[in-house]
Design a protein that fits this description.
two-stranded parallel ribbon
């Protein structure tokens, strides 16, 4: 039986270790996401501390489905930025 519980807790306190990430990260969330969740997304971006978070216009929680062109362009822009 899996004793990690329904969340898959592996015993790693990832929340307090976000600043240790060494891979490039761009934190994003949707302009139409639930207002009560926005502080969590902002705090996640702050803890990662690579760049400010970015609010994606006119999307809620599934930007890749809601605005696929926006997400594709964002990924392309980020890859270009990383290659400079």
């Amino acid at each position: 039986m899996d004793e990690t519980g329904p969340t898959g807790d592996a015993g790693v306190d990832a929340w307090t270790r976000l600043a240790e990430l060494t891979v490039p990260v761009l934190s994003t969330w949707g302009e139409l996401d639930l207002p009560c969740d926005i502080p969590f997304y902002e705090e996640t971006a702050r803890r990662i501390a690579q760049r400010p978070g970015r609010v994606l216009p006119k999307v809620a929680h599934l930007p890749g489905l809601e605005q696929p062109r926006l997400v594709a362009d964002l990924i392309g822009d980020e890859l270009g930025r990383l290659q400079r």
